[in-house]
């Protein structure tokens, strides 16, 4: 179930006044529509449409009242809620009642949110736990037409190479008025420089130029921007290796710092551990994650480390550093989310890859390949693709699982 602040909002049209909020248990959206005291239940107009073809969207809804014309005797409808509901709902569990709030008569429309069971994965040891998830995670508006339409303040470009060959340009419009810090950081990582608080031009800690994509997942997202600080090869002395092995042999022990390896660093395959094959017979990748759910895999590492200890020469072992799992910003650090006002409203939205548990982000970013309402209020969306859709389509179609063959050959500011 969703944690954190409950979304809420109100209509922007002064002639159609209503308010909405997520309920305390987060299972419903309550829409509050003020009406005149003289309106009764028999006067209420409520129509809800069929479920749309798009499973992410809700049906159309019309809610208001009707009054009889004193002269002509005809009924006149006044619709106070009129449009397509932004997110999917359980239509059969949606209902309205008349109520009073703060001395005002209101129509209370209750929209029930769908839920599902899912597995939540530990990013370090890949452990998983089952939990209920209410979808979509957040609402940034009640109706589709009420969503925010941000202004593009500057445009950056990526010249893309596929398997070493030029493939075309992607241009990305950034929403600098709404998210100035996030946009400045991304621009600095594109150009390789930024202006500090004293007005001096500084070289960025790293640049996207000549970096490779991290993942390509069709109809989901494509990600890039990782400078590689999250995976580090550590040289253990013989004594340090013995100390680390004693911890790894018994996970009930409290983790301790060993050499330069911090307590929360996670061991990875590669170097003196080798790679070998996983349980499905697939060759593991150097720097690849260890399956924390597999006793067999953990025991395999123990046996390899025991052999290395017997040799007496120490060892070089890869570790995952969670503090850099989202990359680093233009100044070589990380920073918290700046705001969640822009929804992941369509294909081609540009967003920061953020740790939503510890609230930090750096340089890792992703481009959505579909609408992602459950990412809203969790990841910071700060731009959108403005051109280069043919390049996006080619990457999506042909490079699933081959992200390292997709390179940002050059990047910068569109003049």
Automatic annotation (TrEMBL):
GO MF, one annotated term: peptidyl-prolyl cis-trans isomerase activity
GO CC, alphabetical: cytoplasm
Domain PPIase cyclophilin-type: 157-397
Biological process annotations from GO: protein folding
InterPro entries in the cross-refs: Cyclophilin-like_dom_sf, Cyclophilin-type_PPIase_dom, HSP20-like_chaperone
Alphabetized PANTHER family for the sequence: PEPTIDYL-PROLYL CIS-TRANS ISOMERASE, PEPTIDYL-PROLYL CIS-TRANS ISOMERASE D-RELATED
Descriptive protein name: PPIase cyclophilin-type domain-containing protein
Lineage summary: Eukaryota, Sar, Alveolata, Dinophyceae, Suessiales
